[in-house]
Amino acid sequence: MSSPAAPATAVPSKALKGTVKAPGDKSISHRAIIFGAMADGITDVSGLLRGADILSTVGAMRSFGAKITENETGTWRIEGVGATGFSSPAEDVDCGNAGTGVRLIMGAAAGYDLKARFTGDASLSIRPMNRILDPLREMGVSAEARTTENGEPGRLPVILKSSGDLKPIDYRPPHASAQVKSALLLAGLGAKGTTTVIESVPTRDHTENMLRAFGVPVDVKVAGDGNHISVTGPAKLQATTIKVPGDPSSAAFPIIAALITPGSDILVENVMMNPTRTGLFDTLNEMGAFLRADNFRKSGGETIADIHVKHSRLNGVTVPEGRAASMIDEYPILAVAAAFATGKTIMNGIGELRVKESDRIAATAALLSENGVTVAETKDGMTVTGSAGKAPLGGGTVKTHHDHRIAMSALILGLATQNPVSIDDASMIATSFPTFFDLMASLGAHIER
Ligand code: S3P
Q1: Mean pLDDT over residues 329-356, rounded?
Q2: How many angstroms from the chain centroid is the CA of residue 38?
Q3: Do the beta carbons of residue 416 and residue 260 sit within 8 Å?
Q4: What one-character-per-residue DSSP string does 274-285 give?
Q5: Which atom of ligand 1 is nearest to the CA of 328?
Q6: d(Cα 179, Cα 168) in Å, to the nearest integer?
Q7: What is the Å distance from ligand 1's center to 258 Cα?
Q8: Is the pLDDT assigned to residue 1 strictly greater than 80?
Q9: 26-243, which class in CATH?
C-alpha cells in the first residue's frame, strides 16, 4: 500500500550553514536486520536507519520468526532464529519499495525449508527479480514470478519454495550488482559446499564485511577475471553488536545543496568512507568542488569521516564508466550538480539506472529539462550541459515515479534555481531519508510541504 501523494516545493534559498549528521546507511541497516534475524543469539543494532524500507525488512524478518524490538534510546534488539531456522510466513511478505530488502531476503530465505510469497509497492512490482531467481533456481529453489502485460517476466509477486538443501554454484552476475552477490552468498550459507560469486567490477562489500562480523568466513580471491567471493555452507551466523555508520548516498543531498547554493558552508558528520561507496566524492573533487573529509575514524567496522563543503565553481567532467558501481545511486544528484558546472558532464555505462526505483536516466533527464537544463539521454547514459554557474530557470513540476532519489534531487535543484521547483510526491523520501526535511531546514533550506 502506498501513502497518499504529498507534493512539495523547494524555493531558492540563502546560503546554507551549519552542521548535520548523516542518517544511518540503508544498505548496512537492511543487512544488520536480516543477518541478526538469521543468527543464533541476540544482536543489538545502534544507528539503524529508521526508513520505511528498513521497517519493511523488520516486518519481513518478524514474519519469518525473528523477534525484533526497538528500545527508547533507538537501539534495535533482534532475537535471531538460529538453529530453528526461518519458518514459512503466514501472510505475504510485503517488502514495500525496497529492492535491496526483497532481493536479500529472498536469498536468505532460500537457505531454509519454507514457502513464502513476496510482494511490494507499485515501483518494486515492476523491477526485475530474475537476476536473483535464475541463479537461485540453479541452486534448487522453486520460484514462480509474474509476467507483466508487456511480457516482462520475473516480477513480484514471487512465490518461493525451498527445501533448504541447496546445491552450491559458481556464478558470474551479468550486471555489477551487490544485491545479486549478497542474495547468492546468503543462499550459499544453506548449501553444502562452496558457493562463489565472480565480480568483474567490485560492488559494495557490506555483505562480506558483515558476514565476517557474524562469524562466517568469506574468502575473496582477486584474479585476472575479477574477484571470486566465496562462502562455504552449511554455515551459521553468531549474533553480534552492530553500529551503523552514516549513509554517503544520503549525505550526497546536503553536500550538493551546499555546492550549488551561493555562500554555503556546511559540515556533514558521520559519513561512511568505504571506497566501494565514495565514487561521487572522487567525481566532485575532479569537478573542482571544495570538499574536505576530515576526522577519519572507525565505526562499526567501517571508516567514517566528517565532510566540510563550501559553495564551489564546478567544471564538467567525463565520469569513468568503471566508477559506476561505487556511485550507482548518486547519478541523479550528480546530474543536478552538473547543471551548474561549466561545460558538459558525461555519464555513460549506467544502463542499470533504468531498473532502479524508477528509470533513473529518463526521470533525471525529465527533471532537468523540465527546469530549463540542457540534457541529452542515451540508452545507457546522459550528458548534462551546465549553466557555467548561472542559476538554471527552474519553475517546473517534477514527476517522481515513486522514487525517493528523484524526489530529493529535484528539491535540491530548486534551492538554487531562479524559480521554485515542485515535485508531485515527497512521501517516498521516507524510504531512505525520513529526516530529510528537518535536516535540510536546519541548514536554512526553504522547502515547503
Ligand atoms: C544496494 C545495491 C545497489 C544499490 C542499492 C543498494 C545494496 O543495487 O543501487 O540502493 O545494498 O546492496 P544493485 O545491486 O542492484 O546495483
Answers
A1: 98
A2: 22
A3: yes
A4: -TTT-HHHHHHH
A5: 9
A6: 18
A7: 26
A8: no
A9: alpha beta
pLDDT at 3 (0 to 100): 66
Task: Please say whether the beta carbons of 147 and 153 come within 8 A.
Answer: yes
Nearest to 94 by CA among 56, 127, 126: 56
Asked if the domains at 8-24+245-448 and 26-243 fall in one CATH topology, the answer is yes
Pocket of ligand 1 contains residue 207 by CB under 6 Å: no
Superfamily for domain range 8-24+245-448: Enolpyruvate transferase domain (3.65.10.10)
Complete DSSP assignment for 153-219: -SEEEEEEEEES-BPP-EE--SS--HHHHHHHHHHHTTBSEEEEEEESS----HHHHHHHHTT---E
Residue 250 in grid coordinates: 544520503
8 A C-beta contact, residue 160 and residue 143 = yes
User: If you search the block for the grid coordinates 548561472, which residue do you land on?
Assistant: 390
- Close Cβ partners of 64 (under 8 Å, ≥ 6 residues apart): 37, 81, 86, 87, 89, 93, 109, 114, 116
Q: How far is the CA of 100 from the centre of ligand 1 (A)?
A: 6
Rg (CA), the chain: 21
* Beta-carbon contacts of residue 59 (< 8 Å; ≥ 6 apart): 94
Q: Which atom of ligand 1 approaches the CA of 175 most closely?
A: 16
- The active-site residue, picked from 53, 306, 329, 359, is 329
Domain locations along the chain: 8-24+245-448, 26-243
Q: What is the pLDDT of residues 214-235, one digit of tens each?
A: 999 999 999 999 999 999 999 9
**Contact status, residue 269 vs residue 254, Cβ threshold 8 Å:** no
Tell me the pLDDT tens digit for each residue of 122-176. Answer: 999 999 999 999 999 999 999 999 999 999 999 999 999 999 999 999 999 999 9
